[in-house]
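$ ./design --mode recover --in tokens.txt
reading tokens...
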């Protein structure tokens, strides 16, 4: 399927309604690491298939009673890193509800592409934590806004 304006707008609507944009943080004894992720969970298989056809990623199937759905089978589409960046850059002009989350995630991942190999400077480590906290606060403000309705 070609990336028409209508198709990209549809994908942006999916993210606004059903998507999750996150920076995942892992702490170990030796180091702390982060990665950008985009997820869409749905009971509509074709939706995630269309997203994967255009932007790649992976799909996980959860039978009835698994994956947070007790009544219906569900599917989870995932993108990480550079693939997530490409997707978010495509949908940014069309997303409305989660525009701040998308912009934050783009800023985070674009900076990650500029790092020097595996070495992460203290400044970049601080930036990663700042962006992680910023995206978390955007999630909380989004949830607070939705709980008022």
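writing sequence...
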């Amino acid at each position: 399927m070609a990336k028409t304006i209508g198709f990209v707008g549809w994908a942006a609507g999916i993210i606004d309604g059903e998507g999750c944009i996150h920076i995942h943080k892992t702490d170990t004894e030796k180091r702390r690491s982060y990665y950008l992720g985009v997820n869409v969970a749905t009971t509509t298989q074709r939706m995630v298939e269309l997203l994967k056809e255009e932007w790649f990623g992976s799909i996980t199937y959860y039978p009835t009673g698994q994956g947070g759905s007790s009544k219906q089978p569900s599917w989870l589409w995932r993108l990480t890193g550079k693939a997530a960046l490409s997707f978010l850059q495509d949908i940014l002009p069309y997303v409305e509800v989660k525009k701040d989350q998308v912009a934050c995630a783009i800023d985070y991942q674009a900076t990650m592409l500029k790092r020097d190999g595996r070495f992460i400077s203290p400044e970049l480590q601080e930036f990663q934590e700042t962006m992680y906290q910023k995206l978390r606060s955007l999630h909380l403000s989004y949830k607070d806004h939705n709980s008022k309705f």
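exit 0
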